[in-house]
Each structure stands twice: as structure tokens, then as C-alpha cells.
């Protein structure tokens, strides 16, 4: 608890906010957003007609706008590796661990499948494992992962309440962007994994994850601030923590994204 409070304070200091979290009430964030031209941060779902997998948002929109329900109960804290797999997801992780569907398998140390609570309502999706992740076999364990932890803590969440995965499960050499054929090959695991998780909400971290999942070539700046629909699941887009490490000036905007995500999440049943 004390550690979590410290995370929050550290993150808020990083993004230039010196006030306690309690000052970020919904009214305050709404006026902040409209003052900064971000009044479109509403839980409305944009239908992406280009993606055949995107379904009508009507049912989801009603879920999203239904009365607020707090959804942040802390679930059992079990070891990270055990948390990352269970039942069908466990079998899928085992099958994925020997995948040779693309050339990334030649240089990887291990397949980085996913981590967190398999029953989580909220899933965060990044791009692909980096060096640390490839060595440890767990997503977001390097510097970007530490920042992600602080971002989560600022939202009042911990890794035990959410699930974290990547669009591509093996590390691209020198952390280059995954190539289209690698993304396509890994889609086999990605789609089954999300199908088993069936979260209530998805947050895409960064341009590569956003463009991949939303099948878009728009820049991240254009993709932020709107709700999307992936197979009936509301999807939100925000900056990748690795980008925020390189561009700390964008952390304030990322905090606006996270508040909007949290607000949409709290309205879910
Ligand atoms: N960046 C990602 O997109 N995913 C990771 O797991 C680590 C860094």
C-alpha cells in the first residue's frame, strides 16, 4: 500500500502534477480536457468499418454508458508465472512457447506470452517484447514496464488486477517494429489469447499495437481520444510507456488518456 502510494506520487511528479490524486475528480478532469481541446474523451465507440472483425458497437455502448460500477477489487495475489496461465490459456501458452511460425523464433530466447490475471476485465496490449522481456519471459519488465507500473498505480491498479500482453510474442532484433508477416503469423496466438481472456475493455499501448489491432495506418495522435470496438470489446488507445520515457513532455496527455480510460472502465458493469 505504501509502495503503491509512492508509485502514484512518483508518477504524478513525473507528469508535472504536484497535487494528490483526490484532486482529479471527474469534473476537474472534464474541465481540464475541454480546456485542452480534448473534449472528445468520452466513452463513445467509433466503429472501424475497415475491420471485418469489428462488430456493431450498440450493445457495448449501452454497457459503457450504464450506471457506474466500481470494478477494482484486488484479486488473489498469486505468483506472476502462475497468474499468466490457467486452463485453456495455459495450454495455449505452452503451445505458443515452441512456435516457429516466423523468423523471430530464430533469435528469441523465449516466447513472451502474457502476464497478469486471466480473469481481468482490463487488458493492456503492447507491441512486442524487448531485451529484458525476452530474457525474463514476461511482458513489460524493463524500464518501460516500470513506468507502466507507475501509470497503473496512478489509476489505482496493480498488475494482479489486469492482464498484459503484446501483439507479437517474440523480440524483434534490436527492438525494431515487427514486420507485417510477423504480425500476421503471431495473430494465431493473439486472437486465441484475447478470445480466452474476453476482457471487458482493452487499452492499446503505442502506435504499433494501435495500428495492428485497429488495422489502421493513422498516427497515434490521430488514434487517441476515441473509443473503438474489437469484437465487441471497447478499445482505448494511449501512448506507449517507452515513448513517454523518450518524450516525458507527453506524460500529462497520457494522464488525461488514463483518466478517460478509468472513467470508461468504471462505467462498465
Ligand atoms: N514494449 C512492449 O511493447 N512490450 C513489452 O513487453 C515491453 C516493451
Main β sheet profile: 6 strands, mixed
Total beta strand runs: 6
The spatial strand order of the largest sheet comes to 1-3-2-4-6-5
Percentage of residues in helical conformation: 40-55%
Q: Any idea what the shape is?
A: globular
Q: What's the N-to-C terminus distance?
A: 26 Å
The SSE string, one letter per element, is HHHHHHEEHHEHEHHEEHH
CATH-defined superfamily of the domain at 86-247: Uracil-DNA glycosylase-like domain
Beta-strand content: 5-15%
Could you name the CATH class of the domain at 86-247? Alpha Beta
Bound molecules: uracil
EC number: 3.2.2.27
Enzyme class: hydrolase
Domain Uracil-DNA glycosylase-like: 113-259
GO molecular function, one term: 4 iron, 4 sulfur cluster binding
Task: Please explain how this structure is put together.
The chain has about 270 residues and is α/β, with parallel strands linked by helices. The protein has a domain at about 85-245: Uracil-DNA Glycosylase, subunit E (3-Layer(aba) Sandwich), CATH 3.40.470.10. It contains 13 helices and six strands. It has helices at about 1-15, 25-35, 60-65, 80-85, 85-95, 105, 130-135, 145-155, 180-195, 205-215, 220-225, 240-245, 250-265; strands spanning about 115, 120-125, 165, 200-205, 230, 235-240. Strands 1-3-2-4-6-5 form a six-stranded mixed beta sheet. A hairpin with a 2-residue loop joins strand 5 (about 230) and strand 6. Helix 2 (about 25-35) packs across helix 13 (about 250-265) and helix 5 packs antiparallel against helix 9 (about 180-195). The longest helix is centred in the C-terminal third of the chain and has 18 residues, at about 180-195. The radius of gyration is 18 Å and the shape is globular. The two termini are about 25 Å apart. The structure holds uracil. The site of uracil (URA) has 11 residues, from loops. Uracil binds near residues 128 and 139. Its EC number is 3.2.2.27. Belongs to the uracil-DNA glycosylase (UDG) superfamily. Type 4 (UDGa) family. InterPro entries: UDG_Type-4/5, Ura-DNA_glyco_family4, Uracil-DNA_glycosylase-like, Uracil-DNA_glycosylase-like_sf. It catalyses: Hydrolyzes single-stranded DNA or mismatched double-stranded DNA and polynucleotides, releasing free uracil. It holds the Pfam family UDG.
Amino acid at each position: 500500500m505504501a509502495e503503491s502510494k509512492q508509485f502514484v506520487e512518483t508518477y504524478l511528479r513525473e507528469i508535472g502534477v504536484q497535487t494528490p490524486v483526490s484532486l482529479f475528480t471527474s469534473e476537474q478532469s472534464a474541465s481540464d480536457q475541454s480546456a485542452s481541446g480534448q473534449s472528445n474523451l468520452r466513452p463513445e465507440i467509433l466503429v472501424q468499418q475497415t475491420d471485418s472483425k469489428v462488430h456493431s458497437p450498440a450493445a457495448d455502448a449501452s454497457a459503457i454508458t450504464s450506471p457506474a460500477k466500481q470494478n477494482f477489487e484486488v484479486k488473489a495475489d498469486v505468483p506472476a508465472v502462475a497468474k499468466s496461465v490457467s486452463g485453456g490459456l495455459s495450454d495455449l501458452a505452452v503451445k505458443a512457447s515452441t512456435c516457429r511460425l516466423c523468423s523471430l523464433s530464430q533469435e528469441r530466447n523465449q516466447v513472451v506470452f502474457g502476464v497478469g490475471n486471466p480473469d481481468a476485465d482490463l487488458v493492456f496490449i503492447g507491441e512486442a517484447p524487448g531485451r529484458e522481456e525476452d530474457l525474463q519471459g514476461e511482458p513489460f519488465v524493463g524500464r518501460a514496464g516500470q513506468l507502466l507500473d507507475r501509470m497503473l498505480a496512478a489509476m489505482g491498479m496493480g498488475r494482479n488486477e489486469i492482464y498484459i500482453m503484446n501483439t507479437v510474442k517474440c523480440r524483434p532484433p534490436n527492438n525494431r517494429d515487427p514486420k507485417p508477416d510477423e504480425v500476421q503469423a503471431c495473430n494465431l496466438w493473439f486472437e486465441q489469447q484475447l478470445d480466452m481472456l474476453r476482457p471487458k475493455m482493452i487499452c492499446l499501448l503505442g502506435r504499433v499495437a494501435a495500428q495492428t489491432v485497429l488495422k489502421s495506418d493513422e498516427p497515434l495522435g490521430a488514434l487517441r481520444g476515441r473509443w473503438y470496438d474489437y469484437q465487441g470489446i471497447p478499445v482505448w488507445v494511449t501512448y506507449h510507456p517507452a515513448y513517454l520515457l523518450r518524450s516525458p513532455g507527453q506524460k500529462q496527455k497520457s494522464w488525461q488518456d488514463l483518466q478517460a480510460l478509468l472513467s470508461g472502465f468504471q462505467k462498465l458493469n
